[in-house]
Design brief:
By secondary structure, the protein is α+β, with helices and mostly antiparallel strands. It has 2 domains: 1-26, no CATH class; 31-67, no CATH class. Helix content is 21%, strand content 21%. The chain has one helix at residues 2-15, and strands at 33-36, 52-57, 60-63. The chain has a 3-stranded antiparallel β-sheet, with no helix packed on it. β2 and β3 form a beta hairpin. It starts with a helix and ends with a strand. The relative contact order is 0.15.
């Protein structure tokens, strides 16, 4: 599962030639990510039942709406 996430995040950033801006959760990188209700890395068989709690785009929370 970890390899899948690396290919999707780091690999996608590299393919787009933006590995200096995308693909990692570090200061200075553009952060688009989701917060899930469970760890999909430890229980990948439960992936279809996972609920999205928050969605962040460009460092701003989009779901649920910002207060």
């Amino acid at each position: 599962m970890r390899q899948s996430f690396d290919l999707y995040t780091l690999g996608g950033a590299y393919a787009a030639m933006h590995e200096h801006l995308l693909g990692r959760l570090l200061p200075g990188y553009q952060a688009d990510f989701v917060v899930l209700d469970s760890d999909v890395c430890t229980s990948p068989t439960d992936l279809l039942g996972v609920k999205v709690l928050e969605v962040w785009v460009a460092g701003r929370r989009r779901l649920p709406a910002e207060d």
